[in-house]
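Thanks for the sequence, V.! I ran HEAT repeat domain-containing protein right away. Repeating your input here for the record:
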Amino acid sequence: MIEYDDPASFRGQLQRGRGAAARRAPTEPGAADAVYECVVTDTRWDRQVEQRDSYLARLITRLALPLAPIEQHLSSHNDEDDEPVELALQVLALLPMIGRLDAVAVLRRYATEGPHWATALEAISTSGAMKLPAIWCDTEPWTTFARSQPRIRRIVDQRKSSQARPHHSQKSTTYETEDLMRLVAAGGPERRQALEELGRRGDRTVLDLAEDSALRNATGWTPGIAQALHHLGPAALPRARIWIAGDDNTLVALGERVLAEVGDRSDASQLLSALRRATTAGNWCAAEIPARGLGRLKIPEAATDLMAAWEDTVHSPAREAFLEALQGCAPHNADAVAAEALDDCEPTVQRRACEGVPDTTAVRSRLQELADDPLTPEIHEAANTKLLLLTKGL
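Predicted structure:
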């Protein structure tokens, strides 16, 4: 369990991957040790969806940090679990992309000698560094490197085998409503698809199915029902207002989703209460839903809670929802947050920031950096678009 520092402190901001820490780092005492700590301990709240590799690689380069502490960390872990070295390898694999060629030797040594060589190769492959001329070898780096390294030859063969498997497309089938209801009753993956199709057709039976606890899985959720209600749209609103006042947690959560998507300003107090419950409980994924709804409705009373959520959350992707909400509820606050968010660890947050960031000299400079940054190709279009709009005075 990760213990996060105060969100106002440099270390707390760095652990969370915030742009504020990236901006403070060059003048912050002890910044080097804090960056190393985040690389080797991995402070992500959810490693499956959160990103830190490009964020930390950029900080290592900006602060001109030696790589010896990271290599020492790699050599000290010889157990079967690759989690302790995964982020460090991902960070190292990105460094050659931004001029830190000293990372090449570290990665090569680990790929040929380290216990989690497959993890290293995966990091090298996905980073794009293998394609850089003269870094790994002249041409076909995977194939060439594999000639002298049996380990690497094995993973190359596995990759070729997986890529060669044919893809079979599924044919679409038209079902009558009775057929869809039978699929819902039967369960399995077809239930999700059937529920979504019922929602797309505007069938209000979806509302009754949402209330049927017999359809729920072990976590208390019916896969596909939220998407079905989304397709149902405003037709779900009257029932959602009943659900949100009840004591069935599943229906309360579904009701919050509906209110967030299609509710009106009369639902603002319910959404604000939902936001406060989620943030107090540290349920950051759930907090995104009412936050977006409050932003859509432009509720200024939510500004304080949204700012607190932005600063406190340890789930970095949630910051996109909080920034979006602030842009609707408190545009003035959102300007400062968006400027910080250009240096966030999450590309989705950076993209959102590009759309709404105010025009300043510093902002234009940062947008140009993002437009050219090899570590964030997914941001290039958003940064270039914003630069073009600012140039035109829009």
